């Protein structure tokens, strides 16, 4: 999901698996508190994506773009991420009485995603970013650890050259974009922890990128659920695989 563009509009910076961990129930893709996202819901969303966004060779798609220019359809992990984020944001907003300050319409989300506005995934994304606009995220100064993590991500992605010292990198990176992304990460991250978000190993690692370096290399992300895990017992194979997240901003 191209979070930066959608956030700007909102005026804000399948199968069954045996899960490991304390909450293990066959057929569940994720938990948010006592709410469940099932593998059947994910499979239905994937079928809806393919049905409403066909890309026959040489013909325009529902978004009006030639098939050759169509973006890759979201994967199952993208669908799970959108569902988890919507539930987390809506639960947090209800708890704190946050109200949206902007509106991301389905048509706006469809245009940015390059998908039909009739797609359920598009409606989910529009709902989430509308909800996200209501979260109070005043810029915050990064902690030493937060800045170290951003710099480490930049070096791992080859976006910070070896000759650039950590102090120099911090001076270049520490600005309003980074501070706003960190504020959002703290708020959403705390909610994810408090609501005991659990994600099936099939979709891990699942993260929501808030800020990226050039070429969409994540700089600041909110982990959703547990880290990556190989402890999966397959009962059947779902449609889709891991996600390739887009980011809300671009660090420079």
Task: Give a concise summary.
41% of the residues lie in helices and 11% in strands. With 252 residues, it is of the alpha+beta class. The N terminus and C terminus are likely disordered.
Description:
It is a single chain. This protein is of the alpha+beta class and 252 residues long. The protein is built from eight helices and seven strands; from the N terminus they run αβββαααααααββββ. It has helices at 3-9, 39-52, 76-96, 106-113, 120-132, 144-156, 166-173, 176-194; strands at residues 17-18, 28-32, 35-38, 198-199, 207-212, 218-223, 233-234. Strands 3-2-4 form a three-stranded antiparallel beta sheet. A two-stranded antiparallel ribbon has the order 1-7. Strands 5-6 form a two-stranded antiparallel sheet. A hairpin with a 5-residue loop joins strand 5 (207-212) and strand 6 (218-223). Helix 3 (76-96) packs parallel to helix 5 and helix 4 (106-113) crosses helix 5 (120-132). Residues 2-22 and 230-250 have low confidence and may be disordered.
Topology:
Elements: H1 3-9, E1 17-18, E2 28-32, E3 35-38, H2 39-52, H3 76-96, H4 106-113, H5 120-132, H6 144-156, H7 166-173, H8 176-194, E4 198-199, E5 207-212, E6 218-223, E7 233-234
Antiparallel strand pairs: 1-7, 2-3, 2-4, 5-6
Helix pairs in contact: 3-5, 4-5
| Distance separating the two termini | 21 Å
E-strand count: 7
Global shape: globular
What can be said about the biggest beta sheet? 3 strands, antiparallel
**How much strand content do the residues show?**
5-15%
Query: How big is the Rg?
Result: 18 Å
Count the DSSP helices. Answer: 8
Secondary structure: helix percent? 40-55%
Query: What structural class is derived from the secondary structure elements?
Result: alpha+beta
Give the total of domains: 1
- Poorly predicted parts: 2-22, 230-250
The overall pLDDT average reads 82
Task: Encode the helix/strand succession as letters.
Answer: HEEEHHHHHHHEEEE
| Adjacency order of strands in the biggest sheet | 3-2-4
